[in-house]
Write a structure and sequence with these properties.
The structure holds two protein chains of two kinds. Chain A is built from eleven helices and 14 strands. Chain A is an alpha+beta fold. Chain A has three domains: about 45 residues, Uridine Diphospho-n-acetylenolpyruvylglucosamine Reductase, domain 2, CATH 3.30.43.10; about 110 residues, Uridine Diphospho-n-acetylenolpyruvylglucosamine Reductase, domain 3 (2-Layer Sandwich), CATH 3.30.465.10; about 110 residues, Enolase-like, domain 1. In chain A, the strands form four sheets. In chain A, strands 4-5-10-6-7 form a five-stranded antiparallel sheet. Chain A has a four-stranded antiparallel sheet with strand order 11-12-13-14. In chain A, strands 1-3-2 form a three-stranded parallel sheet, with helices on one face. The longest helix of chain A has 23 residues. In chain B, strand 3 and strand 4 form a beta hairpin. In chain B, strands 2-1-5-3-4 form a five-stranded mixed sheet, sandwiched between helices. By secondary structure, chain B is an alpha+beta fold. Chain B folds into two domains: about 80 residues, Beta-grasp domain (Ubiquitin-like (UB roll), Roll), CATH 3.10.20; about 80 residues, DNA polymerase, domain 1. Helix content of chain B is about 30%, strand content about 15%. Chain B is built from five helices and five strands; from the N terminus they run ββαβββαααα. Classes of the chains: A alpha+beta, B alpha+beta. Chains A and B meet through helix 2 and helix 6 of A and strand 4, helix 3 and helix 4 of B. The complex binds flavin-adenine dinucleotide (FAD) and FE2/S2 (inorganic) cluster (2 copies). The site of flavin-adenine dinucleotide has 29 residues of chain A, from strand 2, helix 6, helix 7 and strand 10.
Chain lengths: ~290, ~170
């Protein structure tokens, strides 16, 4: 399969890349890892006139923790995130997700920014960022804006980002004490996209009750979304198996899966519930320092 | 549409070519440079038959443009052998019957070389995870895993055997 023709540039800094995107608006497309875009070009489902490869743009692939946030560059690869020591120490939700994306080659090249900008409903990062209440930073030649993850993913392959913008950073709030996160994903075979997956980030209060919780679901609607009904079920209550089940059912009820090669809608709904229960169990154990 | 100049070092040898930006790296290797050891299986970035190392990082070369690899050091299956001697992975695939039709083998060996550079002493589980982006429709993987275990043991005993002609430390 051969893509349609296009031009290719590889600018070396961000202002240059943003200027090109503005000047060639309507025909230019950002190229990052390429593991979603190049297959689309080969199928001719995308036919941009110009690819702007951001591989050489420096400063986009760092992973830095500040006092309040983890700042992950838009060009950070899944593998970089998987192996990062700070992520391993304090952001188990991210580490779970990164290690389960595709296969080693995909993790070597695919980036968090590309995954979010692409917004495949089965991609793993969107639900994770929703659960963690992350914010997404978009830059254009005209400025910079910050969009909460919960307002970023709009529909299948549709997000709040503009074609003239580059997703430069993802900012994840630093978990407070007695916090835990987990990502649970079911896939048909190794290296596959999720059939269903659930991301949980929670904090236990001094009384042992769930003080804060975020839940994001993958692959069970037209886009990743926040399982707000399940969050409501959990908030303020003491963690228990029965409560987790109730939250799982609420998450399933809020999902809108469609049947495809991964299975019928009913099955996916059941898996949304089960993955949510498992993620809640593991996140709680982590918050208690037990896992 | 204009062509662009690319310069790549493949298995230690520098090559220059003027290519259309839409040319895939795997086609540069096979059709322009005549290195047909890198196979095209699925052409949809799923099977891993086209795996090569780009600056030491394993990649599916059907999901990469040749222009993206401009300036890079590339290692293909042809670069594994050293001075007429098979790389320990190649020898191990032979010894352990790690192939039947052989179609997946170039990608499987290149990916395994990356895996062992990251993790010289992998568990069976880590090996299976490490080749999860490489599909084999013949062997059932059992002998592939054995071959990688054999090569890993040998490379731990004599790490210089892993040099590979590109001379790029895999990262
Ligand atoms: C075999 C296979 C299995 C996979 N399995 C999974 C999986 O299990 N889970 C999962 O989540 N993903 C999976 N993926 C997708 C993979 O993670 C992609 O790499 C990722 O979704 C896109 O990132 P990229 O850097 O490759 O983006 P690209 O392919 O380069 O770009 C994708 C889109 O995002 C835009 N874009 C990229 N970066 C930016 C940016 N910084 N700012 C603005 N726009 C940008 C591009 O213009 C394009 O529209 C798989 C892919 C393959 C090939
Ligand atoms: S041919 Fe490239 S992954 Fe199958
Ligand atoms: S040996 Fe035939 S595909 Fe692996």
């Amino acid at each position: 399969m051969i893509p349609a023709q296009f031009d290719y540039v590889r600018p070396s800094d961000l202002p240059d890349a943003l200027r090109i995107l503005k000047e060639r608006e309507g025909e230019a497309k950002v190229l990052s890892g390429g593991y979603s875009l190049i297959p689309l070009l080969k199928l001719r489902l995308a036919q941009p006139g110009l690819l702007v490869d951001i591989r050489d743009v420096s400063g986009l692939d760092g992973i830095v923790e500040t006092a309040g946030e983890l700042v992950v560059g838009g060009r950070a690869t899944h593998r970089q995130i998987q192996l990062d020591p700070v992520v391993a120490a304090r952001y188990p939700l991210l580490r779970d997700a990164a290690g389960g994306i595709g296969d080693p080659q995909v993790r070597n090249w695919g980036t968090i920014g590309g995954s979010c900008a692409h917004a495949d409903p089965s991609a793993d990062w969107p639900a994770v960022l929703i659960a963690a209440r992350a914010t997404i930073v978009c830059r254009s030649a005209d400025g910079r804006r910050t969009v909460p993850a919960r307002e970023f993913f709009l529909d299948t392959f549709v997000t709040a980002i503009e074609p003239t913008e580059i997703l430069t950073e993802v900012r994840i709030p630093r978990p407070a004490d007695r916090s835990g996160g987990a990502y649970e994903k079911i896939e048909r075979k190794a290296g596959d996209f999720a059939t269903a997956a659930s991301a949980v980030q929670l904090r236990l209060g001094p009384d042992g009750r769930i003080a804060e919780v975020g839940i994001g679901l993958t692959a069970v609607a037209e886009t990743a979304f926040a399982a707000t009904e399940a969050e409501r079920v959990l908030a303020g209550n003491a963690p228990s198996e029965a409560l987790f089940r109730q939250a799982g059912e609420a998450a399933a009820a809020q999902s809108r899966p469609s049947a495809d090669g991964h299975g019928p809608a009913e099955y996916k709904r059941a898996m949304a519930a089960e993955m949510t229960v498992r993620a809640l169990r593991r996140a709680t154990a982590r918050a208690l320092g037990q896992a | 549409m204009t062509t662009q100049h690319v310069s790549v070092t493949v298995n230690g040898t520098r090559h220059e070519a003027d290519v259309e930006p839409r040319l895939l790296l795997v086609h540069l290797l096979r059709d322009v440079l005549g290195l047909t050891g890198t196979h095209i299986g699925c052409d949809t970035s799923h099977c891993g038959a086209c795996t090569v190392l780009v600056d030491g990082t394993s990649a599916k070369s059907c999901a990469l443009l040749a222009v993206q690899a401009n300036g890079a050091q590339i290692t293909t299956i042809e670069g594994m052998e050293q001075a007429g001697k098979l790389h320990p992975l190649q020898q191990a695939f032979w010894d352990q019957h790690g192939l039947q039709c052989g179609f997946c083998t170039p990608g499987m060996i290149v990916e395994s070389s990356w895996l062992l550079a990251q993790n010289p002493d992998p568990t069976e589980q880590e090996i299976r995870e490490g080749i999860s982006g490489n599909l084999c429709r013949c062997t059932g993987y059992v002998n592939i895993v054995k071959a990688i275990q054999q090569a890993a043991a040998e490379l731990r005993a004599a790490p210089e055997a892993s040099a590979g002609s590109a001379g790029v430390a895999a990262r």
